[in-house]
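[Automated response] Your request has been received and processed.

Submitted sequence:
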Amino acid sequence: MTVRAEFYSRLKEIVGASTLEIALPDKATVSDLIQQLLSEYPKLRDFQNSMLFGIGVEFVEKKHTLRDGNVIAIMPPVQGG
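Generated structure:
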């Protein structure tokens, strides 16, 4: 399956893009997605315990099972303007 990860604030700077299309096995969880991202972008480790994840208008936990085509927002804990 493929999901689209959207990055915000400092996380966007670390991965060098605001969005990435990511291939994952069926029934992958947010945690699986994060592990894959951490292997590709080790600097994300500084934020791994404080990241927030959203699908649609709801925040989700790391154990949330993803579906093909999900768009998941990955944010640092504080957003400001």
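Summary generated for your ticket: The beta strands are 2-7, 19-23, 52-55, 58-60, 71-75. The first strand starts at residue 2 and ends at 7.
If you did not submit this request, please reply to this message.
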